[in-house]
């Protein structure tokens, strides 16, 4: 007897929005059956692996209009309505799709790249050059001074007025700890020490890996870089400003501070 193959998961994006199925229980990732009912033509679907024995596919679509019962949602918006595993798969799908979209041609000879049949990689049939998904490491750090934490508002997110911890990208030849010291100094004028690893989180907006740290104030007065920040200040656990969403490593760092300094 032939066994029915488990239905594949489909991650279809229009720009940065994921197409999901709306149910009474929340949001659900699309399946083969959903795809059959939709009048959509996925552009160059790419298999990105499997989970629980089910293939996972990603593709873009040329319309942002969803039929009844479906909706396009930004990943940040849909997170509370997906399981942890499905959200992780959706982030992986978005990361890979962005990489495929921005790496169509070989950087060595200019010929069109082709997807490898053996791994998640692009290969040039002309010169043999291989291109793997880009991952941009960045640090994110909770700096504390006694029972206060350093929080700042970034220029790139003027509204809503969220505050968060300091973050920045790693530079060539730099250790993660050196990056922590440099970013905090450049953006706020503060010196730090006692740098300790906290955790990490894939952050595919579009291709980062956030490496989290804690650090302690070692000197200096707040003097913000106006190109990066709108404002920065020291806050106590009982008097925090508006904060980022609960699934981000930034929020986890702040929650850890609150837990340790709650009176």
Automatic annotation (TrEMBL):
Pfam families: NUDIX, NUDIX-like, Zn_ribbon_NUD. Its cofactor is Mg(2+); Zn(2+). It comes from the Bacteria. SUPFAM superfamilies: Nudix. Its EC number is 3.6.1.22. One of its GO terms (cellular component) is cytosol. PROSITE patterns: NUDIX, NUDIX_BOX. GO terms for molecular function: metal ion binding; NADH pyrophosphatase activity. GO terms for biological process: NAD+ catabolic process; NADP+ catabolic process. Keywords: Hydrolase, Magnesium, Metal-binding, NAD. It catalyses: a 5'-end NAD(+)-phospho-ribonucleoside in mRNA + H2O = a 5'-end phospho-adenosine-phospho-ribonucleoside in mRNA + beta-nicotinamide D-ribonucleotide + 2 H(+). Transmembrane segments: none annotated. Coiled coil: none annotated. Residues 133-257 form the Nudix hydrolase domain. The keyword NAD applies. It is an enzyme of class 3 (hydrolase). NCBIfam families: PRK00241.1 (NF001299). Belongs to the Nudix hydrolase family. NudC subfamily. This is NAD(+) diphosphatase.
């Amino acid at each position: 007897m032939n066994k029915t193959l488990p239905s594949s998961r489909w991650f279809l994006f229009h720009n940065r929005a994921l197409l999901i199925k709306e149910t009474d229980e929340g949001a659900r990732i699309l399946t083969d059956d959903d795809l059959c009912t939709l009048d959509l033509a996925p552009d160059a679907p790419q298999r990105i692996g499997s989970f629980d024995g089910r293939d996972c596919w990603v593709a873009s679509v040329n319309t942002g209009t969803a039929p009844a019962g479906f909706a396009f949602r930004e990943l940040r918006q849909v997170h509370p309505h997906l399981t942890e595993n499905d959200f992780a798969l959706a982030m992986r799908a978005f990361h890979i799709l962005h990489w495929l979209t921005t790496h169509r041609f070989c950087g060595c000879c200019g010929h069109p790249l082709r997807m490898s049949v053996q791994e998640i990689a692009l290969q040039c049939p002309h010169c043999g050059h291989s291109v793997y998904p880009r991952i941009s490491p960045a640090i994110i750090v909770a700096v504390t001074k006694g029972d206060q934490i350093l929080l700042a508002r970034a220029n790139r997110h003027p509204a809503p007025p969220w505050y968060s911890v300091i973050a920045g990208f790693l530079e060539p030849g730099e250790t993660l700890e050196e990056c922590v010291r440099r970013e905090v100094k450049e953006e706020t004028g503060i010196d730090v020490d006692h740098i300790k690893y906290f955790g990490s989180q894939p952050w595919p907006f579009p291709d980062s890996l956030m490496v989290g740290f804690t650090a302690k104030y070692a000197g200096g007065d707040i003097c913000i870089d106006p190109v990066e920040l709108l404002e920065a200040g020291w806050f106590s656990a009982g008097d925090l400003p508006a904060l980022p969403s609960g699934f981000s490593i930034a929020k986890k760092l702040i929650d850890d501070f609150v837990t340790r300094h709650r009176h």
